[in-house]
Amino acid sequence: MYVYNYANVCIVLWGRIMKKSPTIKDIARKAGVNISTVSRALADHPHISEDKKKQIRKLAADLNYHRNDLAKSLRVKKTHVIGLIIPDIQNPFYPSITRIIEDQAQERGYNILLCHSDFDPQKENNYLSVLLSRQIDGLIIFPTLKIFRNNKRGIVAGKKIPTVFLDTAPLPGIEGNYVFTDNKHGSYLAVKYLLENGHKSIVLFTSEKGLLSSLEQMEEGYIQAFREAGIRVQNKCIFRGELEEKKGLERSVKKLLNKKKSINYSAIICNSDVVARVIYEQAALMDINIPDSLSVVGYDNTFLCSYLDPPLTSVHQPGDALGHQAINILISQIQSEIPWQYRTVSFTPELVVRNSVKQNV
Amino acid sequence: MYVYNYANVCIVLWGRIMKKSPTIKDIARKAGVNISTVSRALADHPHISEDKKKQIRKLAADLNYHRNDLAKSLRVKKTHVIGLIIPDIQNPFYPSITRIIEDQAQERGYNILLCHSDFDPQKENNYLSVLLSRQIDGLIIFPTLKIFRNNKRGIVAGKKIPTVFLDTAPLPGIEGNYVFTDNKHGSYLAVKYLLENGHKSIVLFTSEKGLLSSLEQMEEGYIQAFREAGIRVQNKCIFRGELEEKKGLERSVKKLLNKKKSINYSAIICNSDVVARVIYEQAALMDINIPDSLSVVGYDNTFLCSYLDPPLTSVHQPGDALGHQAINILISQIQSEIPWQYRTVSFTPELVVRNSVKQNV
DNA sequence: GTGAAAGCGCTAACAC
DNA sequence: GTGTTAGCGCTTTCAC
Hints:
2 copies of one chain form a homodimer.
Chain A: E1 3-6, E2 10-13, E3 16-19, H1 24-31, H2 35-42, H3 50-62, H4 69-76, E4 81-86, H5 94-107, E5 111-116, H6 121-133, E6 138-141, H7 146-150, H8 155-159, E7 163-166, E8 177-181, H9 183-196, E9 202-207, H10 213-228, E10 238-241, H11 246-258, E11 267-269, H12 273-285, E12 295-300, H13 304-307, E13 313-316, H14 319-335, E14 344-347, E15 350-352
Parallel strand pairs in A: 4-5, 4-6, 6-7, 7-8, 8-14, 9-10, 9-11, 11-12, 12-13
Antiparallel strand pairs in A: 1-2, 2-3, 13-15
Helix pairs in contact in A: 1-2, 1-3, 5-14, 9-10, 11-12
The first copy, chain A, binds a DNA duplex through helix 2 and helix 4.
């Protein structure tokens, strides 16, 4: 590719003459004023005469001028870009959160860099590194727990970028804003409901230990509900599957359903509606009837619930509210001119009963 | 906010001493070399001795150095950022496309700025302007048709940013890459299938004239199918609803269903599965049975289809393939060192038959 | 193999 | 009210 600079106006590219993007310098030359005057006029600075402002704005429009935000950001040390790291936009829990975050951000002059982590600490770390290089003003993340262990004095902590941790209970010693659902209570509700309906052997579908705060919390709630009922929890009823990718999830679900012969559980509590969906699919293939021979409780209460057959009983997480809080808190911190007091917002989940649990076993 | 620069190492902020992000200058000073040496070492330039490289890399890691990409981008005139403008991530057609685009981009060193247009030309324009200011290297957009009329010599065209137009048949005189489904054929298939099943009065649910290329195409296919069958199309069978926002869509659907008494149509062809879903919802409220008193054909063949009751017959659009093509073409153009030959890729849709159409009327 | 220096486009402190 | 100028952090050309 051959590029020649020609009088600061054109570039000869591939033999064709193309316009170089105009800069304030070009506008200044045409208007016969200094570049700082242009800069001020376009920023609607008070001490510039209205005439000049009008003239300069017209010139800018005529030239199809667009400010180079890179230069501005480099200078003022603010990018108005927010990094958003979610597990996977294809999980129906995330689109509404993403949409709300983007809408609010846009309204307040920020843009969103979208990243998918798949709950994979390594992907998460890579993105974090990229986002820091890009000088994001703030970060919203559904973090794995490893991020805290690996990066305590590392990426997030070291750079002190305003951060909202979503779906994570506060971690001792880690400063940051936390917005989450009380997942301990969520699983507690699910277990309690199942126990009340006579279920005894209830599996909790979760992941490898120490992956996600929300899952650790769910385990606690699960255990607590049993304890309150005076029932001992068997270790094998906590099932650790692979959540990271679709194939892995299917494999795990198959494995779990095969175990039904040995451990005769009657119900599964999932950590998301997506897991429940896979259970429905695999159960159908194995001729296991839901809810007659297997009860299922989902998590998130996404619109999948009403479309599944039978409709899925699920623990409602207020996705919209989580997104709202996250973006508002983040922008507040970014724009705060006084020392920031970190916020923790938690929501209480509710059980939404549909028809995937067998009554009065 | 009071900020003091102190020896280029620390900043006193809100009374606390905070580390300023280290720059290559800091590394250079510590290593006792010139900043250009550091720059070269970190870029793995060939003419730097291995010893120095090692030393400098270690120093960078120790300082938790992250290159300032703003400065780099400003200098090299490449941001490695791609703008993605989609209507709404909450429509289940878009998450998989988005995911694929982001994945491929990330793999090749690009990041995605996510924008929601809601098919609103004004929002679209605003985002375009923002993205240009941000100096994106490329753009993927589901455009409204107005963009072409308003910006022929304007935003997109004027700046010559590599662009992939998604879901739009090529527009005469507008250069760019086009990736789309042959929606003319899609609606043709739907009408043909309905006619074969004895339906006579078939409504096409579309939007205001001239909003989207895909909808204009659908109209053509719709008309063609009738013409081939020797049936005259009545104007009132092309229904123009509001797609932009949820409330508007519901209102339009209600209006259309109310018309069933006057125009006794037996089937509706939707321009998306989401529209079909709203029809299902409203029909249920109005005690209209699907498919007995109303047949519905969806569009996109998203996973909604199998979850709706009865399962929705829908025209399949290969979302994944669209996303794949779009991002690959875009990055190819961005990285091309020779004059770019614009590409047009179209996919042929298929009708996926389920149970939402009454047979042999 | 390494250093010196220019400059990307912009803002803002300082001058008048 | 407007001009001059330094400098954000980086890459890259040109010396040596």
